[in-house]
Specification:
Strand content: 15-25%
Low-confidence stretches: 1-14
Distance between the termini: 19 Å
Oligomer: single chain
Number of strands: 7
Shape: globular
Structural class: alpha+beta
Helix content: 40-55%
């Protein structure tokens, strides 16, 4: 869906994936991910992509704190970290198979965002928002990209909607940011439910 929209916006798609990735990288390191579409396992700076099957419908809860983050500032803070704090963690080998099986409980604890440490150094209140969101949702929560949004995953629609309602009614979470519910339908992309 995202790939189709990007091709509609840009006109004729590039001739091949190499051209697509080169065009995308000239615009931003994560653009090839959106040009390609579908479910991708992204490594390195986010520009090494491998397609991963992610069947079925899945639900995502998002917390969007009111703290704007500068991507450049987060990357500069990351570069300033000591080398041992900057060593990336590769996704566990079981992540692609867990995605194929739709086993989100196996996927969540194995995901990691290297930029969280840097973002939390710049805005410590983001770590508080993440911890509050995780406790209220009762599951693992990750920061998206360079921040400041956080997400968690659900397979069951009823549970996702229940947790979304609970979070919206929790005054501490409302203070920490806006809560959104999104649905991912395999091969058709994301739709924000609100």
């Amino acid at each position: 869906m995202i790939a189709a929209a990007s091709h509609q916006f840009w006109g004729n798609p590039p001739e091949n994936q190499v051209e697509e990735c080169e065009l995308g990288r000239s615009l931003g390191v994560d653009i090839p991910f959106f040009l390609r579409g579908g479910s991708q396992l992204a490594t390195s700076r986010g520009d090494h992509l491998r397609s991963v099957s992610f069947p079925g419908d899945h639900w995502v809860l998002l917390l969007h704190p009111p703290h704007a983050m500068s991507t450049g500032a987060v990357y500069r803070a990351y570069d300033a970290l000591s080398p041992e704090r900057r060593e990336g963690i590769l996704p566990a080998k079981c992540v692609p198979s867990a995605l194929r099986d739709g086993d989100l409980r196996a996927v969540l604890p194995r995901l990691h965002n290297d930029l969280e440490v840097a973002a939390f150094r710049l805005k410590p209140e983001l770590q508080d928002a993440r911890d509050l969101f995780a406790a209220a949702a009762g599951r693992e929560v990750l920061m998206s990209g360079s921040g400041s949004a956080f997400f968690t995953l659900f397979r069951d629609e009823e549970r996702a909607r229940y947790v979304a309602r609970s979070l919206r009614e929790d005054s501490r979470v409302r203070f920490a940011g806006e809560v959104y519910l999104a649905r991912f339908v395999n091969d058709r992309g994301w739709r924000i439910i609100r």
